[in-house]
Amino acid sequence: MPIVHNTLKYTWIKIAPFIYFIGSIFVLILLWSFFSWKTNGDIPGPSAGLLAVQELFIDMSPFYSDPEDPNTQGILIMMWGSLLRVFMGFLLGSLVAIPIGFLMGSSPLWMNILNPIVQTLRPVSPLAWFPLGMIALKSASGATIFMIFITSLWPTLINTALGVSSLPTDHKNVAKAFGFSTYKYLTKIMIPYALPYIITGLRLSIGVAWMVIVAGEMLSGGQGIGFFVWDSYNGGALEKVIMAIFLIGIAGLILDKFFNYLQKKYSFV
Amino acid sequence: MESVSNNIQEIETVENHYDLLKSKPVSIDVKNVTISFDTPKGIYCAVKNVSLQIKKGEIVSIIGHSGCGKSTLMNTISGMVKPTDGEVLANGKVVKGPGPDRGIVFQNYSLLPWLSVYVNIYEAVDSVLKDKTKAEKVEITENALKMVNLWVHKDKLPGQLSGGMKQRTAIARAFAINPSILLLDEPFGALDALTKGTMHIELLKLWNLDNRNKTIVMVTHDIDEAIFLSDRVVVMNNGPEATIKEIVDIPLHRVRNKKEIVKDPLYAQTHDKLMNLLFDKFDINDMDH
User: Fold this and answer.
1) Other C-beta atoms within 10 Å of A156: how many?
2) What ranges do the domains of chain A cover?
3) By the 8 A CB rule, do B145 and B137 touch?
4) A176: closest chain B residue by CA
5) DSSP type of residue A65
6) In whole angstroms, what is the distance from residue B42 CA to residue A113 CA?
7) Torsion angle of C-alpha atoms A55, A60, A64, A67, degrees rounded to 10
8) Which CATH architecture group holds A75-266?
């Protein structure tokens, strides 16, 4: 008898994640239907959502791209555009934030000088930087990237500084006792210790950047998934807006999972 | 191994290690050292006017209550702390900072958790013995690991090791750079009693293999450990302004045997003396005054 019991338990462990997934889809559809019913169909229900899937993925190729007419593009092409802008801004932001984080974390002087600036600018909505980007770069795409750049700075910068400044005396003592060169100190002690903090910062940065890009593209117009949302709303196609929300969510989830993986890989015991 | 230990037995029969020390040169000379720290509440004087001479090949323990400045005093020998007044000479040279002639084993092992056991030692060897070739450095690292029986664990991260294994790694790292002075800051404090006992023997074995040429200074608050390992025990007063209360000689013969030594009347005597120096309360009746 115990063997049968164990087999059941084993099977359950195997299939449980799948069952839970079905359950969560079910709850989602239930909630969706409820709000659609409550608003008398002003918010399209799940069936309209299915129609949007057909429209966006079957009637028109999601990879459709017409260089003559940038407003008519497949949904995935639009999203890819947004992702590219996020990566550009994120990359530039990280390249600036990590060295400044190291500087602030290792030197109390620079911490004292730069910290007030960081703390003042950090709470500002990244959208506020958009006009400055427009004036400086004279392009909507450039301004969006600039906005993402600003967005990506803060979490990475603050986490890097925190990581570097919290380096335990024990580790510093190893470097002192065995006379490590500056290069060895950086590569064998400082960077490995700060790396998990930096990756946490990057993870937070890309999360916020992906949220901000939608708003940014609504503002800049003519490009990306943000524009698609706004355009669909203006065209009265709310089911497309809902579909876009799901797609944005899934893309964000994948980005987060990737950085979560990096975090696990580079954390030490 | 056989020949080495036989050799030591022979030396022992001729003359006790303790007596031999008298003819050895001075290895560490602490001259009128005072150490003060700037704190928000003002200047705190941890150690005041301490002088101490340690001979080459001598094992000395510094013992005292927590916060009595014993680690601080030892850190002036390692060069991690600069004395406010006075100076420390190691091998005849004024100590200005940490140096390759002094190996340090820290209280909490201080292994780098992202490097394997092997790399932890190799990086230290690479940093200190700059003039050696890569092959020589690899060989030194290998020997150090084999010496403490950690060769099979060389690829493990410190987090995967037991406390005793971590401490052996830290000791191997200190021995690998072949310093003439070995400084141990409460090296066995975090280990359980059984592992501690084994580590004492291992430390003495390594010291023996090196023909008892290394000077060892150890900070501890374990009386038995201090007696078993040392030639002299330095008892410190409580801080602030800690001074040396008394230096107790331990002329027990080497090779010392953990089981036999406790039966030696001299051991009991010394133990008693150290207890009296360190405590003033011995049972509940002493608590009232």
Assistant:
1) 28
2) 2-43, 75-266
3) no
4) B98
5) B
6) 27
7) -90
8) Orthogonal Bundle (1.10)
| Residues B217 and B181 sit within 8 Å (Cβ to Cβ) | yes
Q: Is the dihedral of CA A217, A218, A220, A223 positive or negative?
A: positive
Ordered structural domains, chain B, with CATH: 1-101+181-188+213-279 (3.40.50.300)
Cβ pair B30, B51 in contact under 8 A: yes
Strands B244-249 vs B232-236: parallel, antiparallel or unpaired: antiparallel
Distances from the Cα of A33 to the Cα of A15, A47, A263, angstroms: 27, 9, 38
Cross-chain Cβ contact B98/A188 below 8 Å: no
Q: Which strands make up the sheet holding B215-220, listed edge to edge?
A: B102-105, B181-185, B215-220, B59-63, B232-236, B244-249
Model confidence, pTM: 0.80
CB contact under 8 A, A269 and B160: yes
A267 inside 8 A of chain B by CB: no
Q: How many CB atoms lie within 10 A of CB B100?
A: 17
- What is the spatial distance between Cα A158 and Cα A122, in angstroms, rounded to a whole number? 10
Q: What is the pLDDT along chain A (269 residues), one digit of tens a residue?
A: 555 667 778 888 888 999 999 999 999 999 999 999 999 888 898 888 888 888 888 777 778 777 776 667 788 888 999 999 999 999 999 999 999 999 999 999 999 999 999 999 999 999 999 999 999 999 888 999 999 999 999 999 999 999 999 999 889 989 988 989 999 999 999 999 999 999 999 999 999 999 999 999 998 877 889 999 999 999 888 888 999 999 999 999 999 999 999 999 888 75
Partner B contacted by A177 (CB < 8 A): yes
